[in-house]
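Re: beginner question about structure tokens

> Can someone show what the tokenized structure looks like for a real chain? I only ever see the sequence side.

Sure, here's an example I had lying around. Input first:
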Amino acid sequence: MILAVVCTLVAGAIGAFLEPVSFSVSLPVSVMGAFILYHIKHKGDM
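And the corresponding structure tokens:
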């Protein structure tokens, strides 16, 4: 959980320097979405 938050914040910081505004918004959302999908896919492993 902490790793997902840290990676999302880092993606937001990196996205802030991208020129199109759509990239700066979509990058953190896609990173958090990837963590959510991974957790849903591997829910039975825990």
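Each token stands for a local structural state, so reading them left to right follows the chain. The chain has a mean pLDDT of 81.
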